[in-house]
Amino acid sequence: MGAPTAQANTTFPAARVVSAAALPYCAAMTEIESHLHELRTFPPPPSFAAKARVDAASGAALRELAATDLNKYWRSVAQHLYWERVPTQIATYTPGAFHDATWFADGTTNLAYNCLDRHIAAGLGGKRALIWEGEPGDSREFTYDQLFAEVAKASNALVALGVTRNDAVAIYMPQVPEAMIAMLACTRLGVMYTVVFGGFSSTALGDRMVDCDAKFVITADGGYRRGAALDLKSAVDAAVADLDVKHVLVVKRTGAACNMKAGRDVWWHDVVGAASAEHKPVWLPSEHPLFTLYTSGSTGKPKGLVHTTGGYMVAAYQSTKLVFDMRDDDIYWCTADIGWITGHTYVTYGPLLNAATVFIYEGGPMHPTPARFWQMIEKWKVSIFYTAPTAIRAFMRTGVDHVKAHSLASLRLLGSVGEPINPEAWMWYHEHIGGGRCPIVDTWWQTETGSIMISPLPGEIATKPGSATKPLPGIAAVVAHKDGTLAAPNEGGYLAVTAPWPSMARTIRGDHQRFIDTYFKDIPGMYFAGDGARQDADGYLWVLGRVDDVLNVSGHRLSTMEVESAVVSHMSVAEAAVVGRPDELKGQGIVVFVTPKQGVVADDALATAIRAKVVAEIGALARPDEIRFTESLPKTRSGKIMRRLLREIASGKGVAGDVTTLEDQASLERLAQSYQHED
Ligand code: WT7
């Protein structure tokens, strides 16, 4: 092995004092003030800390080890997992430029083996691995032995269909066990897959399939959502109509009539049902591509972030174990859909690597009543519950009676992810769901980071409502300025990471330069996350939201450019600008400013048609909240749309700052005025 290369330089000149206002436009920038006044702290409850995997003393020891010898720390974590060839290399990268980092590069392993076979070999085959409940109330349970058998059969079926390691598989599924089984089968074979969230449109699915050259699709006849059967198969048919696709594998879920194309479409129960339940995993190099997951950036089309095997596995295992304090008798429920990174790392891999019992639910939180989740927790005795602030705020609105009607006594730990959690929602979660006794882990991370980066360890760190607290051991997260200097305590800055971590994305599929430019150019020597943050005097991190053109709508990440290009693809639209505005429930809402083509009548029918166009191009998650017609968009002399101004108009704030570069002052005034007359 080569000796692990040096750490990125973490010594910085004295911090420059820049006010938080110097940051471009954090969605939650005004929250800085309120966070400064957040003085409540919640130490780990003694009953929790007494049994926790990590308490104050062991937490300090872990942090000490990671700070003095990062490679030794991650090597010690990797030792808990099975490697067919044990790695001698840990992190390898060019100092000062860790975009090229590799992890455990000379090791070989298999992630699915570590999720299943390893536990069976340890005598846990009879333990429940997965409990699933469908929206109509049907349920299924799988022991580790049974889940292994299903994954083995699916692996054999994929091989029989001609899937090879040179292929990519698209997974477009409702939240059913087969979605996880499909992921694990690909992983077992070393076949790169991409999960496309079932809420994305056929166009979005087709675009992603083209980008990663997927010749196979795994889908279902449908899934249940809010009492209705969602039709996924027709969306697949539309997406692949012009593509060279070899097979579409269809899980029967709703029993809806499906158009099965002869020779191409096959039923899951036919091919998987007939396959052998024996399968030997394929041993793969640590850096073997595991999956590609598309996410929105500030420009251009969605980026296909590529994660690899060994490093992702090690970080998923460790973060789940430490952050969720995972124990043998836990019933763990993360409400994310498998179509998002959270569904990969904290529904599927992290919990299974820890031999946990995972609960998954097919439907949404509000159907048939806002008590649905509390019914599930009571029925299945869920002990760890991980959800998003947007859901918590929706529950707050529907009132505590729905909560009180159920016993949530089984809960011992709560988690939050996806967007900053406002202190009010945190307190409500703490009191009404956690009964005042459950620590809350507010976990900051991204599709790019692969696993949780900043979070309290619940037995170690006192929490403060609204703060994700501290980086995990081995994670070098800081608040920095664009020149690479560190921000002073309580000073606003950019959230950045100064050293590589095992589960970092390795590239953007097909565009490595874009990967380097997006994440490693803005702040010299650091990974730039795209978020604004500050660190208080106790070293607690407060994430303030995106500082780029990425929107966070109900915890779903969308790019303003992506929505804009969907809007302008409507034949009646001349020009459009999309901005976010604060939304109490969703975090951000989507406002579209539209200039129609000459002679087009700007009426409700056009607004409806534009909304429909966005839904068709991207999916219902991108449906604009408001469409504003305008004769022209405010622009600078160089022709750039003044987004800051539009954001201020959209959020109902007075227009502030220097607007003298506006091409057409009158148009802005008209815009600002017409906005004020709204509702
Ligand atoms: C963006 C990443 C990985 C989880 C699901 C979202 C925001 C995520 C938090 C948090 C404040 C958060 C950030 C980040 N975000 N978690 N706990 N506190 N902000 O993954 O779609 O890749 O979005 O979500 O803005 O950059 P994603």
What's a quick, concise take on this entry?
The chain is an alpha/beta fold. Bound molecules: 5'-O-[(S)-butoxy(hydroxy)phosphoryl]adenosine. 5'-O-[(S)-butoxy(hydroxy)phosphoryl]adenosine binds at residues 295, 341-342, 417-420, 442-447, 468, 529-531, 543, 545-546, 552, 557.
What can you see in these coordinates?
- By secondary structure, this protein is of the alpha/beta class.
- The protein is built from 22 helices and 30 strands.
- The chain has a seven-stranded mixed beta sheet with strand order 5-4-17-16-18-19-20, sandwiched between helices.
- Strand 6 (168-172), helix 8 and strand 7 (192-195) form a beta-alpha-beta unit.
- It is globular, with a radius of gyration of 25 Å.
- Bound molecules: 5'-O-[(S)-butoxy(hydroxy)phosphoryl]adenosine.
Instruction: Report the count of strand segments.
Output: 30
What small-molecule ligands were found?
A: 5'-O-[(S)-butoxy(hydroxy)phosphoryl]adenosine
Distance linking N and C termini: 67 Å
Q: Classify the beta-strand content into a percent band.
A: 15-25%
Query: What integer value in Å does the Rg equal?
Result: 25 Å
What share of residues is helical? 25-40%
Question: Helix/strand-derived class?
Answer: alpha/beta
Features:
single chain; 679 residues; alpha/beta; five-stranded parallel β-sheet; 22 helices; 22% strand; binds 5'-O-[(S)-butoxy(hydroxy)phosphoryl]adenosine
Secondary structure: elements and pairs:
Blueprint lengths: L30 H6 L9 H6 L4 H13 L1 H9 L12 E4 L2 E7 L4 E2 L1 H5 L1 H5 L6 E6 L5 E5 H17 L7 E5 L4 H13 L2 E4 L6 H11 L1 E7 L2 E3 L2 E3 L2 H8 L6 E5 L13 E3 H4 L12 E2 L3 E7 L7 E6 H15 L7 E4 L6 H13 L3 E5 L10 H9 L3 E4 L1 H10 L2 H4 L8 E5 L5 H11 L6 E4 L33 E4 L12 E5 L9 E2 L3 H9 L6 E9 L5 E6 L3 E4 L2 E4 H9 L4 E11 L3 E10 L7 H14 L8 E4 L13 H8 L14 H13 L2
Helix pairs in contact: 3-4, 7-8, 9-10, 12-13, 15-17
